[in-house]
Batch of 2 targets.
Target 1
Amino acid sequence: MADTIFAKIIRGEIPAQKVFEDDAMIAIRDVAPAAPTHILVLPKKPLVNIADADESDALLLGSMLLRAAAIARDEGFSESGYRLVFNINKDGGQSVPHLHLHVLAGRSLGWPPG
Ligand code: DGP
């Protein structure tokens, strides 16, 4: 798997605004926010995307979703609402080939996405 900007952030080689870290994942503020609050939850394991995951990653993926919900509560937008997004490969709009969960909040989000 190619080295990515997120792998460098996880290794601490590139700075990022961290909102959470444990042994399995980090959560950082997106450098180009698409909403007033835009956080990325990244596993430390170098999976390319959800299509690259298998049964052995089930606990990790569930933990990422629960972490996003905990961040929403901590940051105060759980009640007003938010969106969780995985962009996957070219048509999904994925630009960084390291699995990441977008947490978007702070305005009314349109549907369907562009
Ligand atoms: P995606 O298009 O789904 O692969 O999302 C990648 C996101 O990563 C995009 O919203 C911009 C963000 N991003 C790219 N480079 C950096 C970086 O160096 N630092 C941070 N914090 N976010 C980044």
Target 2
Amino acid sequence: MTTDTTNLPVLIARARAMVTTGKGLLAIDESNGTCNRRFASAGIAQTIEMRRDWRALLLSTPGLSRCISGVILYDETIRQTAADGQPLTQLAHDAGLLIGIKVDTGAKPLAAHPGETVTEGLDGLRERLQSYSGMGAGFAKWRAVFAVDDRHLPTRACIAANAQALARYAVLCQEAGLVPIVEPEILMDGPHTQARCEDVTEAVLHSVFDQLVLHGAALEALILKPSMVLAGQASTARNTAAEVAEATLQCLRRTVPAAVPGIMFLSGGQSAEQASAGLNAINLSGEQPWPLSFSFGRALQYPALQIWAGQAANRIAAQDAVMHRARCNSAALTGAYGAAMETV
Ligand code: 13P
């Protein structure tokens, strides 16, 4: 069984536009809880107005669309208007950015599997996708999360449950005329080795593509958003960008069909510079079956958020910082990123 093909040419063209040369995605789809935690650590008030102002600041960064093809919004944001009354979707549209929407309802504890989660949100998803499409969304995102330890995690149950949910989400998106971003994130916390991360990433991606095929997803009309393959943050090992590139590409080549139009990495808690360096090394590693780009949240936003600190007077400096990271990551798509870009 395959998906209805009526929407396919449009979806394929849109997926390609998302990974068009020199561009990536800006993820600003943090749930209110996650956004508030990040605001709290930057000393910013955790209010609906501050979340609105931060997202409006990002969306109106001058020149953003030179490096960014689209933005991923959260439910609150896609319905929100800026302080001057303009809908935030209008800001994105005027900036020439494709609009995406996070549609999962979060990672919830997986019964009988301590320490693991399954991402929920399938109930009512068909109707929600229709409504987001009516609000201007052209693509969607669903994030599954996998905790890693040295032996047991992730369990086969956790991999199977999340892979099936990702596949069911993906076909519902394609049916509704939205390009699905399929995001299986291998968490960076923990003391695991890079080799363990590689094994886990490979097992997860095998299962995800197995389920996508089983459920009839059109591989040509989706984007994969994986994590880079690296040692856990609590391990003493630190991988070079070249090591990250080698392990990540080996894993992707073994698991991701060439029909997939693009791979757009999450940053996952790497520093902004590390994420750019990893992406750069990946793109310096010779020709691959797919364009390899970015769909970063923290690695695009974090330096700018510290500068903004919730103060209107810092708005332009914060936009400069966002644009700087966008330029660095755009350069990384051609292997042109380097330390010299960080000193100007
Ligand atoms: P990070 O780049 O901060 O990992 O966020 C990307 C994202 O969309 C997480 O779901």
